[in-house]
């Protein structure tokens, strides 16, 4: 149905007079009368009752009037919505992350900042393994993903360092090392049983931990693997063994578990990278990258003040 016809009909209903509606629409009365007559013929129903001094809308006309208001409002909003999409103020942002990254407070802080700055943009979150997340960027399923390693070379993807998270040791509170007051040398963990986050679920973190142990001169004795990083804490609390975990994990469980800093050379860290495909036309991605830049600067300033 023609937008201009609906706009003319709305003017007539609101003015209750064709002459006044014609003045409002800046047109002559005869063409306006023909428009209304054409609408009635098109719908095969009487929309207006002609009165000696004006018109009165019929029941069918009232229904058309309400529908016309909705259609016109939607039509008027279209240019602004298109502009909003172009400026990244609406639409959907797709973010992926591995399980261990999702436990770090930087991610909810980033999401909160983005939501405050761009409230009309919906955010879709996906937790998965690093290989699947890399594929999701290559296939344009996700706009940005957060991993414990940079993207493989040769895929045309960008890797932005976000932060370096220290690795710490988590152990049962009755462990022989639990009473040690200072940070624990990584090599001192060699004699003890390890509980680790399963490599299939957290390949990057698993490989990082194993590399740190190899550099310290030993291969950890793994007696149990857990399907998720947080579930490994149950096994540690039960006394199955100790584990090396990202520092942020200590905020999730401290019952029957003692956390200690680790000393090693090079330092034991679990970096976090933002991986994305360079696309200047993806304005929502550019907004995220700007927020990440500010967040990274704040983290660096905080670390420098320590």
TrEMBL record:
Specify the superkingdom. Bacteria
What is a GO molecular function of this protein?
A: DNA-binding transcription factor activity
Instruction: Check the record and name the SUPFAM superfamilies matching this protein.
Output: Periplasmic binding protein-like II (SSF53850), Winged helix' DNA-binding domain (SSF46785)
| The keyword DNA-binding belongs to this UniProt entry's keyword annotation | yes
Kindly give the InterPro entries that the UniProt entry links to this protein.
LysR_HTH_N, LysR_subst-bd, WH-like_DNA-bd_sf, WH_DNA-bd_sf
Question: Which part of the chain is the HTH lysR-type domain?
Answer: 1-58
Q: Write one Pfam family the protein is assigned to.
A: HTH_1
Keyword set for this entry?
DNA-binding, Transcription, Transcription regulation
- Any one of the GO CC terms: protein-DNA complex
Family membership: Belongs to the LysR transcriptional regulatory family.
Name it: LysR family transcriptional regulator
User: Organism, per UniProt?
Assistant: Acinetobacter tibetensis
């Amino acid at each position: 149905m023609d937008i201009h016809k609906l706009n003319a009909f709305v003017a007539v209903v609101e003015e209750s007079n064709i002459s006044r509606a014609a003045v409002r629409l800046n047109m002559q009365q005869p063409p306006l009368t023909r428009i209304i007559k054409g609408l009635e013929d098109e719908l095969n129903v009487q929309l207006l009752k002609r009165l000696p001094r004006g018109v009165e809308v019929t029941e069918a006309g009232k229904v058309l009037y309400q529908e016309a208001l909705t259609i016109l409002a939607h039509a008027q909003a279209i240019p602004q919505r298109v502009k909003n999409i172009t400026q990244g103020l609406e639409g959907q942002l797709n973010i992926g992350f591995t399980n261990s990254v999702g436990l770090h407070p930087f991610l909810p802080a980033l999401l909160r900042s983005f939501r405050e700055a761009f409230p009309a943009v919906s955010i879709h979150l996906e937790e998965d393994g690093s290989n699947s997340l890399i594929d999701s960027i290559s296939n344009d399923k996700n706009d940005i993903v957060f991993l414990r390693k940079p993207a493989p070379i040769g895929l045309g993807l960008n890797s932005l360092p976000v932060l370096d998270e220290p690795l710490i040791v988590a152990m049962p509170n009755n462990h022989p090392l639990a009473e040690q007051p200072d940070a624990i040398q990584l090599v001192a963990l060699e004699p003890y049983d390890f509980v680790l986050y399963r490599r299939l679920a957290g390949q990057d973190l698993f490989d990082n931990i194993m590399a740190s142990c190899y550099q310290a001169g030993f291969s950890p004795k793994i007696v149990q693997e857990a399907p998720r990083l947080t579930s490994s804490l149950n096994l540690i609390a039960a006394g199955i063994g100790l584990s090396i975990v990202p520092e942020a994990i200590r905020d999730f469980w401290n019952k029957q578990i003692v956390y200690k800093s680790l000393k090693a050379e090079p330092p034991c860290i679990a970096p976090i990278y933002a991986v994305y495909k360079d696309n200047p036309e993806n304005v929502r991605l550019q907004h995220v990258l700007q927020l990440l830049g500010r967040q990274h600067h704040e983290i660096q300033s905080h670390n420098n003040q320590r």
